[in-house]
Amino acid sequence: MRRGGVSSNRVFGGAFSLTEVVLALAVFSLAIVSLLGLMSVALSTQRDSVMETAAANVAAAIINQRRAAPEATSENIVLPRLSDMVGVDANSAASGSEVVDMSGRKVPSADQQAQFLCQYRSWGWDDPITPHLARVHLRVLWPVELARRSPERAESYEVFTMMAGER
Fold first, then answer.
1. What is the model's pTM?
2. Contact 125, 113 (CB under 8 A)
3. SS3 label, residue 129
Protein backbone atom coordinates (compact mmCIF):
# COMPACT_ATOMS: atom_id res chain seq x y z
CA MET A 1 0.00 0.00 0.00
CA ARG A 2 1.37 3.35 -1.04
CA ARG A 3 0.62 6.62 0.61
CA GLY A 4 1.93 9.69 -1.01
CA GLY A 5 4.42 7.74 -3.06
CA VAL A 6 6.21 6.20 -0.03
CA SER A 7 5.90 2.56 0.83
CA SER A 8 4.84 1.82 4.42
CA ASN A 9 6.44 -1.65 4.44
CA ARG A 10 10.00 -0.63 5.39
CA VAL A 11 12.49 -3.29 6.40
CA PHE A 12 15.20 -2.24 8.89
CA GLY A 13 17.94 -4.81 8.23
CA GLY A 14 21.04 -2.67 8.92
CA ALA A 15 20.85 -2.03 12.69
CA PHE A 16 21.67 -4.19 15.74
CA SER A 17 19.20 -4.84 18.49
CA LEU A 18 19.96 -3.87 22.07
CA THR A 19 20.37 -7.55 23.00
CA GLU A 20 23.03 -8.06 20.32
CA VAL A 21 24.96 -4.98 21.44
CA VAL A 22 24.91 -6.08 25.10
CA LEU A 23 26.08 -9.59 24.17
CA ALA A 24 28.91 -8.20 22.03
CA LEU A 25 30.05 -5.94 24.90
CA ALA A 26 29.99 -8.91 27.30
CA VAL A 27 32.19 -11.02 24.98
CA PHE A 28 34.57 -8.08 24.44
CA SER A 29 34.80 -7.40 28.21
CA LEU A 30 35.54 -11.05 28.93
CA ALA A 31 38.34 -11.04 26.35
CA ILE A 32 39.89 -7.85 27.80
CA VAL A 33 39.77 -9.17 31.38
CA SER A 34 41.42 -12.43 30.26
CA LEU A 35 44.19 -10.53 28.46
CA LEU A 36 44.84 -8.35 31.52
CA GLY A 37 45.17 -11.50 33.62
CA LEU A 38 47.71 -12.89 31.19
CA MET A 39 49.68 -9.63 31.24
CA SER A 40 50.42 -9.98 34.97
CA VAL A 41 51.66 -13.54 34.42
CA ALA A 42 53.81 -12.40 31.49
CA LEU A 43 55.34 -9.54 33.50
CA SER A 44 56.12 -11.85 36.40
CA THR A 45 57.74 -14.40 34.08
CA GLN A 46 59.77 -11.68 32.39
CA ARG A 47 61.01 -10.34 35.76
CA ASP A 48 62.01 -13.86 36.86
CA SER A 49 63.83 -14.41 33.58
CA VAL A 50 65.77 -11.16 33.96
CA MET A 51 66.84 -12.06 37.51
CA GLU A 52 67.85 -15.59 36.53
CA THR A 53 69.96 -14.26 33.67
CA ALA A 54 71.57 -11.74 36.02
CA ALA A 55 72.28 -14.52 38.55
CA ALA A 56 73.94 -16.61 35.84
CA ASN A 57 76.09 -13.63 34.87
CA VAL A 58 77.02 -13.02 38.52
CA ALA A 59 78.00 -16.67 38.98
CA ALA A 60 80.15 -16.54 35.84
CA ALA A 61 81.79 -13.30 37.01
CA ILE A 62 82.60 -14.76 40.45
CA ILE A 63 84.13 -17.89 38.95
CA ASN A 64 86.05 -15.91 36.32
CA GLN A 65 87.46 -13.58 39.03
CA ARG A 66 88.99 -16.56 40.79
CA ARG A 67 90.16 -18.26 37.58
CA ALA A 68 91.89 -15.06 36.48
CA ALA A 69 93.72 -14.76 39.79
CA PRO A 70 93.85 -18.18 41.52
CA GLU A 71 95.90 -17.03 44.49
CA ALA A 72 95.04 -13.34 44.68
CA THR A 73 93.53 -11.87 47.80
CA SER A 74 91.12 -9.01 47.44
CA GLU A 75 88.20 -7.73 49.44
CA ASN A 76 86.01 -7.92 46.31
CA ILE A 77 86.68 -11.56 45.39
CA VAL A 78 84.02 -13.92 46.76
CA LEU A 79 85.69 -17.33 46.43
CA PRO A 80 88.72 -18.23 48.57
CA ARG A 81 92.18 -18.72 47.06
CA LEU A 82 92.51 -22.04 45.23
CA SER A 83 95.14 -23.28 47.66
CA ASP A 84 92.65 -22.73 50.50
CA MET A 85 90.07 -25.04 48.89
CA VAL A 86 91.12 -28.05 50.90
CA GLY A 87 89.24 -31.19 51.85
CA VAL A 88 88.57 -34.49 50.16
CA ASP A 89 84.83 -34.11 49.68
CA ALA A 90 81.93 -31.69 50.03
CA ASN A 91 81.53 -32.54 53.73
CA SER A 92 85.00 -31.23 54.54
CA ALA A 93 84.73 -28.26 52.18
CA ALA A 94 85.62 -24.68 52.80
CA SER A 95 82.35 -22.77 52.74
CA GLY A 96 80.94 -19.31 53.15
CA SER A 97 78.44 -16.78 51.91
CA GLU A 98 78.70 -13.21 50.69
CA VAL A 99 76.29 -10.51 49.55
CA VAL A 100 77.14 -9.28 46.05
CA ASP A 101 75.97 -6.70 43.55
CA MET A 102 75.00 -7.23 39.90
CA SER A 103 78.68 -7.40 38.88
CA GLY A 104 79.58 -10.13 41.38
CA ARG A 105 81.54 -7.88 43.74
CA LYS A 106 81.10 -8.10 47.51
CA VAL A 107 79.06 -5.32 49.08
CA PRO A 108 78.05 -4.63 52.69
CA SER A 109 74.88 -6.43 53.69
CA ALA A 110 72.89 -3.23 54.18
CA ASP A 111 74.01 -1.72 50.87
CA GLN A 112 71.25 -0.81 48.40
CA GLN A 113 73.35 -2.41 45.64
CA ALA A 114 73.02 -5.83 47.30
CA GLN A 115 71.18 -8.01 44.81
CA PHE A 116 72.25 -11.60 45.52
CA LEU A 117 73.40 -13.82 48.32
CA CYS A 118 76.19 -16.15 47.14
CA GLN A 119 76.86 -19.36 49.02
CA TYR A 120 79.87 -21.47 48.11
CA ARG A 121 81.57 -24.71 49.01
CA SER A 122 84.99 -25.60 47.63
CA TRP A 123 87.20 -28.61 48.16
CA GLY A 124 89.67 -31.02 46.60
CA TRP A 125 92.81 -28.92 46.14
CA ASP A 126 94.82 -31.36 48.22
CA ASP A 127 93.05 -34.48 46.95
CA PRO A 128 95.76 -37.09 46.11
CA ILE A 129 93.82 -38.41 43.11
CA THR A 130 93.38 -35.03 41.40
CA PRO A 131 95.89 -32.65 43.00
CA HIS A 132 95.62 -28.93 42.24
CA LEU A 133 92.09 -29.34 40.95
CA ALA A 134 89.52 -27.57 43.11
CA ARG A 135 85.81 -28.36 42.98
CA VAL A 136 83.42 -25.47 43.52
CA HIS A 137 79.70 -25.45 44.20
CA LEU A 138 78.38 -21.90 43.88
CA ARG A 139 74.78 -21.01 44.65
CA VAL A 140 73.39 -17.54 43.87
CA LEU A 141 70.14 -16.70 45.69
CA TRP A 142 67.69 -13.80 45.46
CA PRO A 143 66.01 -11.76 46.84
CA VAL A 144 68.62 -11.21 49.55
CA GLU A 145 66.16 -10.72 52.44
CA LEU A 146 64.33 -13.97 51.70
CA ALA A 147 67.59 -15.85 51.06
CA ARG A 148 68.84 -14.88 54.53
CA ARG A 149 65.63 -15.87 56.32
CA SER A 150 64.66 -18.94 54.31
CA PRO A 151 67.15 -20.01 51.60
CA GLU A 152 65.02 -22.97 50.53
CA ARG A 153 62.21 -20.59 49.50
CA ALA A 154 64.43 -18.11 47.62
CA GLU A 155 65.04 -18.27 43.89
CA SER A 156 68.47 -19.70 43.09
CA TYR A 157 70.98 -20.47 40.37
CA GLU A 158 73.63 -23.13 41.01
CA VAL A 159 76.96 -23.91 39.35
CA PHE A 160 79.27 -26.85 39.89
CA THR A 161 82.70 -26.42 38.34
CA MET A 162 86.37 -27.35 38.68
CA MET A 163 89.35 -25.01 38.67
CA ALA A 164 92.96 -25.91 38.05
CA GLY A 165 96.00 -24.02 39.26
CA GLU A 166 99.52 -24.27 40.61
CA ARG A 167 100.77 -23.71 44.12
1. 0.73
2. no
3. coil
